[in-house]
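Posting for a labmate who doesn't have an account.
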Amino acid sequence: MGLSACVTQVQASDIQDLVKHPQDYLGQEIEMKAYCIKGGRSGDVLGYECTTKDGVYVNTGDITPEEAKAKLADDCAGGKCETTISFEPHSFTTSGVIEPDRDVVVFNTKTAKVSF
């Protein structure tokens, strides 16, 4: 019996479940489309902030691979490029302050893998 990684690929239709039941996704590998910015949109994130159009935020201390960091700093600076982000959240918070008119979920993870 071989080992296989279980990755939850979050499609647009699954985002609402992710927002409604974030606790169900803790400790699971999640893969979704997002826009990533070093320091976050407001400059108050120590590592990187990745966001979806649907109000899901991922705060991560580090991005891999190194090539992705370089691309985020150059061609995709300021969140210009949509990426695929894979991460395993260890905690989350919800906020009604980050975006006016809706609550958002902020997942926290140590490292996220980004691909373009």
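Reply:
Got it, the structure tokens are right above this. The chain has one domain: 14-115.
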